[in-house]
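Okay, can you check this protein?
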Amino acid sequence: MHVKVRVLAIPQAGMGAWAFHGWQEKLPKSVEMLPVELPGRNSRMLEDKGQSMAELVGDLVTAVMPALESKPFVVLGHSLGAWMAFEVCNEIERRRGPKPLCLIVSGCRAPQLHEPLEHDADRVMPCLHDLPKGSGPGSFWEHFDRRYGKNPDLASDGVKDYVEPLLRSDFKILETYAPTRGAAEKFPFPVLGCGARGDNRFTPEQLTAWSVYTDTFAERWFDTAATMPKWSTPHRYLVDSPDAFVAFLGPKCEDLFKNKPKPPPIRPGAYAVANKKGALVRAECDLASAQVGDLLPVGTRVTVEEAVHVPNAKPRARISAPVAGWLSCHVIAQLLG
């Protein structure tokens, strides 16, 4: 079976693509994981860490856009990754890219509740990125361990010294983040909020608050207490006990693909090309034109003179600009005013 849906998966603070290790083998063959490796960690350790959400998101969208244009996709993010996934959807929209089938956010309060001093569920110490070094009272590691559990993999001072700069960098992005989309601006696709019961990094009401960004919102909660390591916390369920979520994700993606919205019919007017795949000029154009047999770039404005709708096939449109010819209508995303 060929791939039908891709899942762009963005991990929580301090983690990399390894956070989704083993998921692909447990998913249907129709679902393909695209785990994100952000700069400054793991296989990209020698690269500079991102200094802002805007920088990370812009670079990420540039890198993954070809993969997202070629298959239907879902954007998934956990904790800090949820806010990053939200901003990835915003950036794709700004670039007039393809719409995701769904935004899946996990373990994170809604973006309009970004202000940590007011909304972070940790009322003892809402901000960690600028706390003193060391493990003593009031230090970064005292509050990190209190919040996320005392991870045995981080027991040695050497390991802590190694990962602390990355954690501080990610926490600074988390704690200084402000959304680029207003709460009244709805996405034209569903948003699914997920969480583990007992996760104290957000409240149920803060997860439900994601509903302001869509007309199609749902929640899914997972009971993972019995399968988590004793030292861990429910906030780490996607890393330490992901099986229930992965078992849910595969059928969910297949259902989203099966019920994906049909594009509106193409009618005469001005459009923008949204997807390179299949945007081929077929006839009635200058053979010396660079467009012959080539792909119209995303964002190209085309003037549709007429469209031909064929049963069980993609419609085709006759265009008069930027060159004269025919192209596959599924690549035309937006009617321009």
